[in-house]
Amino acid sequence: MTYVISGLLIIANFISSLLKGKGKLLSRMLLVFMWILFWGSYNNADYLNYRTFYDYVSNYGAGFSTSDVGFVMLARFAAKFGLEYHHFLMILSFVGIYLITETAKKYSTKPQLVYMLYFIHPYLLDVVQIRNFFAMAIIIYCFRYIEQEGIGNNIKFVVGVLIAFSIHAISILFLPIVLLKKLEVRRLALVVFIVLLIGIPLAYSNFFQIVASKIVGVQRVENYFINRARFGFLIQFFIQFFIFLMIHYSKVVIEKRNGANKFVDLVYKTNLYLITLFPLYIINGTFERGFRMIMILNYIVFSKLYMTSNIREKGIILGVIFVFAFLLFSHYIFMPYRDTVLFPIFQNNLLFD
Fold first, then answer.
1. 292 Cβ neighbours under 8 A, 6+ residues apart
2. Cα–chain center distance at 236
């Protein structure tokens, strides 16, 4: 049944995107369905790990030595109220989805398009990787602060990043955006080029492992450096660079038709900055999570491009990004994780069983 509901909601929101309006009813139905799939999921790839972690915190009041302190505090707080794991997940996913919807509604006049694309990819990975999901929701929500000028807004963004960092360490990647946002694109591109020039050779040494262990501890980074990628990182290089080109095209068209847009410019610079992750992909493809955190922001930019286009262009743009999202789903979820992510999420749910 969940497969049928998913298909119907995707088709309905696709059609809604072609029509005028924000499609509130259909988008809310999709969001509620996503929320239920999230907290009701069990027996997926990381379910046992998170369940064991929550039970441990409930019994001993502390996490494991490798646990992120912010996530431990959230679990401890929930456990004090006698909440079971799925109750904790119900609240956490609700807050995360709320932060996502507030971001989408603030910047897009077609939020249903953003939700639909996110549901296709990378939502299912977020259901499994709970810390990454919640940290991502905080990060993208805080972009409203960094978009604006003023020390106060910069401080709010930094605080948000640090809170996200306490939940998932990879969030620290977004801290430099406070400084990078004011750089001209040419200078930022030069910085990225220099980082790649230095970073790619260093990726074949222990340099990044030593630095990371100093920041978050040896035990927490060890697994990231055990199984180094061979040539798979080239695919991630291509995908990320292709998305960057799509954002670049969107930015050029949007600015030509509607003038400069601070949000679009910020997302563009963030995509450019995150190209510096390429050396880390050589070490381990898991670092792709850092880039995945801004996919919703990218979808918002695509929705802005869509809304600036004429009727003929809208059909083409919607078709292209829809197919592209499914290609990402195929590459990141269906081919490698259908048995541990896709099937368990749709076939094992507390409400639909």
1. 122, 125, 132, 136
2. 15
Query: What confidence tens digit (pLDDT) does each residue in 109-134 have?
Result: 999 999 999 999 999 999 999 999 99
Give per-residue pLDDT as tens, 125-180: 999 999 999 999 999 999 999 999 899 999 999 999 999 999 999 999 999 999 99
Would residue 276 count as lying in a domain? yes
Q: 273: which residues sit within 8 A by CB, 6+ positions away? A: 176, 177, 180, 188, 192
Identify which of 93, 277, 326 has the alpha carbon closest to the alpha carbon of residue 172.
277
Query: What are the residues facing 349 on neighbouring strands?
Result: 41
Tell whether the torsion through CA atoms of 265, 267, 270 and 272 is positive or negative: negative
The answer to whether residue 353 sits within a structural domain is no
Range of the domain at 201: 2-347
Domain count, the chain: 1
